[in-house]
């Protein structure tokens, strides 16, 4: 390489370096599957435990509750969502860090830093927005807002990691928008977006890059 | 054929320099240690090629302190972008000729 006689190898090396230095490519597919499973576990928990009656219509359920009971439920819902997020994020972190380590690289590279920053700006904005919605009783908008902001975060981060993440983001945004247009099925859309899409995508990524 | 060879820049005719330019073309800036890891080269080797590219006006050096530790990062100059593109095009033309 670097030899005038072999320009094809030079070009190939240049392309590879451009890709590797600007994108975080060690994102773990398995962590997507785990994120999806924990989202579904969270939904099952909410379905059976919190509303008690086993309802997917969170909005109807909330309006039928006394205010004091309402407040506890809201914090319980928030706690479940926070635990799901924590499980999903820590799995993504540890499994991806494991992959970079195996490849002999460090997890904190300029590319991974940029991916994380671009992911977290819409994600944190969305998180705060949803807490505000919860405090002001806009229950029906919570799941759609979570999906839409998360989708936007993925679209944003997609430029700095595997290109497929961009399309996962688009699908999450569509799921979130559907959830606004078809109200009352929050848990169903939560399972479809955070659960099923994650699992399908995680498996596809795992087969394509890791298996 | 002669024109193509003329466009192949001597400055970039080295694996490490080619690597440095490739990374800087797609990143606003890149720090020394990350470059070292990405290109898998030694400190001295990288430093000497960075110096050469800087002297030719292809890249700029930005020295600053992060947590009181020196941190040197590099960016490509406008001249560097133009000349590297020319070099790439010449490489592609060469492939087509072959």
Description:
The complex is a heterodimer of chains A (211) and B (98). Chain A has one domain. The mean pLDDT of chain A is 88. Helices cover 77% and strands 0% of the residues of chain A. With 211 residues, chain A is mainly α. Chain A contains 8 helices and no strands. Chain A is elongated. The longest helix of chain A has 36 residues, at 67-102. By secondary structure, chain B is an alpha+beta fold. Chain B contains 5 helices and 3 strands. Chain B has a 3-stranded antiparallel sheet. The longest helix of chain B has 20 residues, at 78-97. Chain A binds chain B through residues 1-2, 4, 7-8, 10-11, 13-14, 17-18, 20-22, 105-106, 109-110, and chain B through 5, 8, 13-15, 18-19, 22-23, 25-27, 30-31, 34, 37-39, 88, 91-92, 94-95.
Tally of structural domains of chain B: 1
Q: Find the count of extended strands of chain B (DSSP E, 2+ residues).
A: 3
Oligomer: heterodimer
Major sheet characteristics of chain A: none
Strand content of chain B: 15-25%
Judging by the overall fold, what is the CATH architecture of chain B?
Answer: Orthogonal Bundle
Instruction: Indicate the CATH topology of chain B.
Output: Arc Repressor Mutant, subunit A
Largest sheet of chain B: 3 strands, antiparallel
Q: Write down the Rg of chain A.
A: 20 Å
What is the element string of chain B, with H for helices and E for strands?
Answer: HHEHHEEH
Unreliable spans of chain B? none
Contiguous runs where pLDDT drops below 50 for at least 5 residues of chain A: none
| Approximate helicity band of chain B | 55-70%
Determine the structural class of chain A based on helices, strands and strand pairing.
Answer: mainly alpha
Radius of gyration of chain B, in Å, reads 15 Å
Number of discrete helical segments of chain A? 8
Q: Order the strands across the largest sheet of chain B as they lie in space.
A: 1-3-2
- The backbone outline of chain B, from C-alpha atoms, is elongated
Estimated helix fraction of chain A: over 70%
């Amino acid at each position: 390489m670097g030899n005038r006689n072999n320009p094809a190898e030079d070009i190939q090396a240049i392309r590879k370096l451009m890709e590797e230095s600007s994108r975080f490519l060690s994102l773990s597919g398995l962590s997507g599957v785990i994120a999806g499973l924990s989202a579904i576990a969270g939904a099952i928990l909410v379905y059976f435990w919190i509303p008690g009656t086993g309802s997917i219509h969170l909005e109807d359920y909330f309006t039928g509750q006394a205010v004091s009971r309402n407040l506890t439920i809201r914090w319980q819902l928030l706690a479940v969502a926070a635990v799901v997020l924590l499980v999903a994020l820590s799995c993504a972190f540890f499994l991806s860090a494991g992959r970079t380590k195996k490849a002999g690289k460090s997890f904190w590279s300029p590319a991974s830093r940029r991916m994380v920053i671009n992911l977290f700006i819409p994600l944190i904005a969305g998180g705060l927005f949803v807490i505000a919605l919860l405090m002001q009783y806009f229950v029906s908008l919570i799941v759609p807002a979570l999906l839409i902001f998360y989708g936007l975060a993925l679209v944003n981060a997609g430029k700095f990691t595997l290109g497929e993440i961009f399309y996962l983001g688009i699908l999450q945004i569509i799921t979130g928008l559907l959830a606004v247009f078809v109200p009352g099925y929050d848990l169903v859309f939560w399972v479809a977006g955070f659960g099923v899409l994650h699992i399908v995508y995680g498996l596809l990524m795992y087969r394509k890059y890791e298996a | 054929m002669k024109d193509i060879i003329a466009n192949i820049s001597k400055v970039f005719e080295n694996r490490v320099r080619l690597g440095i330019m490739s990374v800087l073309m797609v990143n606003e800036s890149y720090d020394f240690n990350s470059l070292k890891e990405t290109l898998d080269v030694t400190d001295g080797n990288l430093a000497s090629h960075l110096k050469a590219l800087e002297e030719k006006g292809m890249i700029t050096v930005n020295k600053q302190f992060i947590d009181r530790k020196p941190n040197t990062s590099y960016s490509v100059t406008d001249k560097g972008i133009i000349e590297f593109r020319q070099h790439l095009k010449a490489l592609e033309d060469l492939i087509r000729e072959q």
